[in-house]
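Before relying on records like the one below, remember that each one covers exactly one chain. Contacts with other chains, cofactors or solvent are not represented anywhere in the record.
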Amino acid sequence: MHYPLQVPQAKHSGKILQVNSPYDSSSVGSVDVLDASGANQALQNAADLFADKSQWLPAEQRMHILEKTATLMQERYDDLVMLAVTEGGKPLLDTRIEMTRAIDGIKSCIECMRTESGTEIPMGLNAASANRIAFTQKEARGVVLAFSAFNHPINLIIHQVAPAIATGCPVIIKPASDTPLSAFAFAALLTEAGLPDGWCQAIAIEDLDIAGNMVADKRVDFFSFIGSAKVGWMLRSRLAAGTHCALEHGGVAPVIVAEDADLNDILPLLSKGGLYHAGQVCVSVQRVFAHASIVDEVTNGLVSLAQQATIGDPTQENTDIGPLIRPREVERIDSWVQEAIDEGAQLLCGGKPLANNCYATTILLNPSPDSKVSRQEIFGPVICIYSYTDLDNAIAQANSLPYAFQASVCTKNIDTALYVSKQLAAATVMVNDHTAFRVDWMPFAGLRESGYGTGGIPYTYRDMQIEKLTVIRTSV
């Protein structure tokens, strides 16, 4: 499967990005690549569309395009699922869930269009505001440039592109180079559903310098980034004056397990939250702080669940955990695990690379607070367990990092739940659930170095608009 350029008037650079399966390196597809001239053309196409208000798409047309796109995705559900599985390596069952979420995300954008509106601003409250009527209306912010990550190759694209279409913003989407096919497929579906040329341009580019120059371009009105903190903050520093942005980075998600937690209920959830998609999730369970009185039960339970997981070919129905996205990630994760063991962690299971870019599900007990696995996002199938006796000390350790995203507390005591929830440095705290829970209409925000702004369909929809005020002075 090959996707040609989706940038009107751009010339082919002569280069093609080949996409291979992370599991067996087989060819999955390819896309045409833009050079600097093509990237400039994409920006100019979007800027020209937005500058000419006669070309703006009315809300009824945008809504029809999204409705038709959702229908097309449902009709081609199995093909889109398999495309995402083979390019990204997320197992079949989990990718089906992602695809269902993606379709629902489009429907959420439609609901935003139906329900979000401007407001009346009170006038006539004093002499200065007499004989005036004022109201706001929502209007597209402008050109959206979106860089996306590999780990959810269709749903992340929906979160960045669909709100742009709903708001009437021309959007340029640059998916991760490991997983561009789902994004190109989605852009093609939008075109098939009636979106005119230029309103959604999926791109693959030659090098990082071109990407950086696009971000810095003054024609960009809103920059959406999903990826590593190091890259995200660097790109934000390059934005032109006036460009708005939203950054979604990762975390090192903590879970506080109190001595009264229902372990039969919570351990399967923590295992899923830590090992799902081989741990390649920005809010994956990574640090579990278990009270000393139950730490043996927690470790034994998580080890048993980790060892039961089926690791292998993501296209098979019974596979629980697929490969890492690329070989160097396997090497990095293994080096972090071995370093943690050298620094005093107890290896309870796993701790070794497997065939086909897979890594054994790994449980570590009491790594050093200074080990990389305790301080940085591992983005692999590794869960660290720490024994504690003092709740406040556990909370302090959970809060000690420059990252804060989603966290969790497990307890039967409402006072404990509310206390820990209040004390944890996190944008979201789950009670008796894993840290990776998400529905696409809830706020999804990283704090500290974990991000900037708030994700989630309705929140992105609002970010991509301005609220324009009109004040009418009357004679009555």
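The radius of gyration is 24 Å.
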